[in-house]
Write a structure and sequence with these properties.
mainly beta; 17-stranded antiparallel sheet; 17 strands
Length: 259
């Protein structure tokens, strides 16, 4: 199909084919779909492909592979893939995203995300474990999920239990929950982050040193914060600025706590 026929501003072509086979009571579908030259306003993709095998019964097993090449979203150009197999009650999904992040005044830098989860749907709620969520993007570097974290998502709310990432000697942990009524809570702790890691993100005349530790605990409803605590401690931290005449200005921050 020519997507230009679907509405103004849409471009691209979609080709698909499929078969329906099996017993009349529980037939199965095998389908292949390819879309090329997709574009709508500033978003688009050079190619999208989907391979699907699934039964029409809600409890039938399924398997799918979805890939996107040269995906353009909000000015970012990405490549991505997602695959899954199992049943509604128990399945596993894995995927990845690769792309370039624009940096002001510099060439774009490459970034990547690899993720995986295992769980199932019960009613309208998905529950399971996030067992991979590893990302690598300058200047923060590569972060790996230390261990699986329980995850629940549904119309009545959601919750991410303690999830911890590691990057060399640095740890970052996060907990979050929200309810359908709009209540939410966000707790995070970052420990032993070397500030020198951000040297490429600051001007050449500025140098930073020391170790950063952060804890935060906020709760509220909707866009309102009802309670919160934020503490920042930059152990042995220092910031130096070298002026054009060679003069060096040095700063040493004090611990910061907001309640």
């Amino acid at each position: 199909d020519d997507l230009g026929l679907w509405g103004p501003g849409a471009e691209g072509r979609v080709d698909s084919r499929g078969t329906l086979q099996g017993p009349k009571e529980s037939p199965a579908v095998e389908a292949e779909c390819t879309a090329k030259g997709l574009r709508y306003e500033d978003n688009g993709a050079r190619e999208l492909t989907l391979d699907l095998k699934a039964g029409v019964h809600p409890d039938s097993p399924f398997e799918f592979n979805l890939s996107a090449a040269d995906l353009s979203l909000g000015g970012h150009r990405l490549h991505a893939a997602l695959a899954g197999r199992g049943t509604r009650a128990g399945h596993r999904m894995k995927g990845w995203i690769r792309g370039l992040i624009p940096v002001e005044g510099k060439s774009p830098v490459s970034a990547r995300l690899d993720f995986g989860a295992e769980g199932g749907l019960k009613g309208e709620t998905w529950a399971g474990n996030l067992d991979q969520f590893d990302f690598d993007a300058p200047p923060v570097g590569r972060w790996v999920l230390r261990r699986p974290a329980a995850l629940r998502l549904g119309k009545t709310g959601g919750e991410l239990e303690l999830a911890c990432w590691g990057s060399e000697a640095t740890d970052w942990c996060l907990q979050a929950r929200f309810t359908g009524a709009g209540d939410w809570r966000f707790v995070t702790e970052l420990s032993h982050l070397p500030l020198a890691r951000f040297k490429e993100a600051v001007p050449e005349a500025v140098s930073v040193s020391g170790i950063l530790n952060v804890t935060a605990d906020f709760s509220g409803q909707g866009g309102r914060i009802d309670a919160g605590r934020f503490e920042l401690n930059a152990a042995e931290a220092g910031l130096a600025y070298r002026a054009s005449d060679g003069t060096v200005l040095r700063f040493k921050p004090d611990p910061l706590a907001i309640h």
